[in-house]
Amino acid sequence: MAYKLAAWMRMPRVLVVIVGIVLLIVFPLINTSEYLQHLVIVALLYAVLACNWDLTLGYAGVFNWAHIAFFALGAYAAGILAKSFGVSPWLCILAGAAVAVVASVLVCLPVLRVKGLYVALVTFAFGELCLHIVVSFSQYTGGSQGLVLIPPITIGSYSFMQNQDLGYYYLAVALFLASTVFLALVIRSHFGLSIMALRDYEDYAISRGVPLARQRLLTFMLSAIFTGATGAVYGFYLGVVSPELFGFGYTATLISMVLLGGISTLYGSVLGAFVLTFVSEFLVSLGPWRYVIVSSIIVGVLLFYPEGVYPGLQKLFRRLRVHAQPKPEDTVKGT
Amino acid sequence: MTVQSLEAILLTGLVLGSLYALISTGLSMVWGTLRIFNFAYGSFMTVGAYVAWTIADKSALGAGIWLGVVIAIAVLIALGMLSERILIAPFIKRRDVALIAIITTLAASLFFENGAQILWGPRLKQLPAMVQGNVRFLGTMVDLQDVIVMISAPIVLGLVALFLYRTRLGRAIRAVEQNRDSALLAGVNVPLIYSLTFGFSAGLASVAGVILGITRFITPTMGDAPLLEAFIVVILGGLGSLGGTMVAAYIIALIEATCMTFLGLYWTPVVLFAIMILTLVFKPTGLFGKE
Amino acid sequence: MAPPLLEVKDLHVGYGEVQVLRGVSIDLQDKERIGLFGPNGHGKTTLLKTISGLLRPWKGEIRFAGKVISGKSPRELVEVGIIQVPQGNTLFPRMSVMENLLIGAYADRAWKKRRQGLERVFELFPRLAERKSQLCRTLSGGERQMLAMGVGLMGHGQVLMLDEPTLGLAPKIKDELREAIQQIAATGVPMILVEQDLEFLLALTDRLLLVQEGRIVLEKTHASSEIEHARILEMYFGGLDQAEPDLALGGKIT
């Protein structure tokens, strides 16, 4: 009886996912606002970023301040290769992912076994270091002005900019779906369980033979793959990459996406990304007030909804079902 | 290498070291006592500078720099205590409080920096110097203001040490840093100590901010670079050692002065960051750390 | 009969989801000294921690001089006069002997009497007087225990709770410390003493309580005569036989 109930509980979520995917696919055909489509593209890319960040933050329990650096490095790598060396955009995207993975290894090696706080500090330093190197090699990177005039992605003679960035839109959707499926598989795998065990019961997990260093390194690397690729696409789409990506502002915005949605909930991060992209857009015109509001949201969420909005919604739905049926067991945290 | 440049490096090192010592002590206190890293520390410096400007500058209240410093310290102590209540205290009992504190203090730094921009505008400002004139020192002419900076660290930090080692409250702060549970059992009001320490460190930050506002410029993001420098110093110096922080400040300052002369503007930060990362990897407790 | 100075009624406490104390009730009269003994991990330290405010009770009540004190913070309890000298690492390693003692007198009530307190501590432990400015972490194990007790004494408490003060010390130091505890007891301060050494407890306390599986399973008021000692030891072992055959004096590792 409980089994059937649990199955029934999952039904609406699968339904929502299917409806969501269908909506995403038909969206450009029914939408007339270029601006709205732009926002959706950006939201999708940020969602990939947020979800992958959640892998190290929510599931592995370490604050990887360099995560955005992976994104930015992917963007810069792809942009430089495309602009200064004329490499094909598709190879650039792969290069972006590769560069991000290499960076993740470099940043993770010093902190393989240290406590969470030191991971945050080292990754912070690494991020700043990247910023500095990027600004210093201004010949290739455009220095503090950033990299501009990145050529668009093309397949043959078809440029993705045509048909109001239609190509970019579907690329973003594809990336988003691929990344989400990838992350879901990772989380539900044996590997995913092991890193959650390390997060919650570190000493016990280690004593049972879970290799902390190896799992941490793998988590970093896995989280970097789609992040770097998305960075590359972001660079191609906007045509520019700026060093601002390394700054506090972007970090705060991304972190609030993860927080708002709920740490260690995959769909939560997606929700957070969409909500915050739209909210943030509306706030751009407010200048400095934008970050005042975003930072207040961050602190507010942590104070009042420490689990994030998405688990709050889950609880709400569960309560609605209580009227009809007895309450099923809570799902395992992290799915 | 001429004698001239050696003197210049030494001089820069002394002035800069004093500045770094002032900047880093507050950060070190919070790390030692509350075991968290305060990413809003730079923004405390910024707000301190702006408050002092409002009091001191002729286009504002025009009451002079010295009153400006005093008021800035008072305001920042209050602001620091309030911040601790909101950003740290609700999470202090959690195992991952350090992680949460990173996020909340990051948010706070954005809040303060952008708030400062709203209140005071984005244009550069500067604080009036405390003294004018120059004096002969180590064979070169030095700004009296720089001399003040040089001696201010030992003076201020000396006062801090006096407070920590000779007063009941100061001893309580050290006790909480060394053994929180025992301090509780001795009747120390630990939550209050946390709040006071945070506020105190904000006060120190404001002094650093004022000095930066005099010797450099005041902008909403003026605290970003000093924050990084303070991080490097505190990590090199080590957890729980104010003396260690001070020594590390001068070491970093001398290294920076030397690198600037020989490696130039772009490579110096790389060296400093490399030092930070190497310290974290090989000796996470720092040169003089206690744990 | 006067109302008890300290009353613990039906206390249920645990850590996280693990329950340790299952309905403990204890009385402490003024000028009385009670001893707690029993296997490790069965709740003696947990009981002390709850009385001193480090832990919150799940159920039950604690009263001091008639007033409810359960659920109050450690700081408030120190002001009330409940002082605990806990087991293990309890001192401030980078502070001197003198500074440690001064922290012990942090509460307002105790701060006013700190000079007296220092005199008393140095009288009881002359070795500490010799090492006034020495850093705590350079002291030997026995000296550190003395200091821990001194810090507790500086609190000028109405009730003194000592958790295994002689644990892990060499026999000679144990004796020194025990003599000091005797002297402290002679001043009439009510005490709760947790110890593994039954003989010591019998010599020093008026009443013995055996804590097992989070409950008081044995309570014996005794006179310190040889016959009584033997009977109580037998009863302890006998009590163990009845309950858990594999428990031995010195504790079972749980």
Layout of helices and strands:
The complex is a heterotrimer of chains A (335), B (291) and C (254).
Chain A (H helix, E strand, L loop, with lengths): L1 H29 L3 H26 L7 H19 L3 H20 L7 H21 L1 H4 L12 E2 L2 E2 L2 H27 L1 H11 L1 H6 L4 H27 L9 H14 L4 H19 L4 H16 L4 H14 L13
Antiparallel strand pairs in A: 1-2
Helix pairs in contact in A: 2-7, 2-10, 2-11, 2-12, 3-4, 3-5, 3-10, 4-10, 7-8, 7-10, 8-10, 11-12, 11-13
Chain B lengths: L2 H32 L6 H16 L8 H24 L8 H24 L13 E4 L2 E4 H23 L1 H11 L1 H6 L4 H26 L8 H14 L4 H21 L4 H16 L9
Antiparallel strand pairs in B: 1-2
Chain C lengths: L5 E10 L2 E11 L4 E5 L6 H8 L7 E6 L2 E2 L5 H7 L1 E4 L11 H8 L3 H5 L1 H11 L1 H5 L10 H14 L4 E5 L7 H16 L4 E4 L3 H7 L2 E6 L2 E7 L4 H18 L11
Parallel strand pairs in C: 3-8, 3-9, 6-7, 7-8
Antiparallel strand pairs in C: 1-2, 1-4, 4-5, 9-10
Helix pairs in contact in C: 3-7, 5-7
Task: Give a quick set of tags describing it.
heterotrimer, B: mainly alpha, two-stranded antiparallel sheet, 73% helix, C: 254 residues, alpha/beta, six-stranded mixed beta sheet, 10 helices, 24% strand, disordered C terminus
Summarize the structure.
The complex is a heterotrimer of chains A (335), B (291) and C (254). With 335 residues, chain A is mainly α.
Can you walk me through this structure?
Chain A is 76% helix and 1% strand. Residues 324-335 of chain A have low confidence and may be disordered. Chain A is an all-alpha fold. Chain A has a two-stranded antiparallel ribbon with strand order 1-2. Chain A has 14 helices and two strands. In chain A, helix 2 packs parallel to helix 7 (162-188), helix 2 (34-59) crosses helix 11 (248-261) and helix 4 (89-108) packs antiparallel against helix 10. Chain A has helices at 2-30, 34-59, 67-85, 89-108, 116-136, 138-141, 162-188, 190-200, 202-207, 212-238, 248-261, 266-284, 289-304, 309-322, and strands spanning 154-155, 158-159. Chain B is mostly helical and 291 residues long. Chain B has a domain at 20-221. Chain B contains eleven helices and two strands; from the N terminus they run ααααββααααααα. Chain B has helices at residues 3-34, 41-56, 65-88, 97-120, 144-166, 168-178, 180-185, 190-215, 224-237, 242-262, 267-282; strands spanning 134-137, 140-143. In chain B, strands 1-2 form a two-stranded antiparallel ribbon. In chain B, a hairpin with a 2-residue loop joins strand 1 and strand 2. In chain B, helix 1 packs parallel to helix 5 (144-166) and helix 2 runs antiparallel to helix 3. Chain B is globular, with a radius of gyration of 19 Å. The mean pLDDT of chain B is 86. Chain C is an alpha/beta fold and 254 residues long. A six-stranded mixed β-sheet of chain C has the order 6-7-8-3-9-10, sandwiched between helices. In chain C, strand 9 (207-212) and strand 10 form a beta hairpin. The longest helix of chain C is centred in the C-terminal third of the chain and has 18 residues, at 226-243. Mean pLDDT of chain C is 82; it is low at 239-254. The chains are: A mainly alpha (335), B mainly alpha (291), C alpha/beta (254). The B-C interface holds B 168, 171-172, 174-175, 178-179, 181-190, 240, 290 and C 52-54, 74-75, 78-79, 83-84, 86, 89-95, 99, 102-104, 106-107, 110-111, 151, 155.
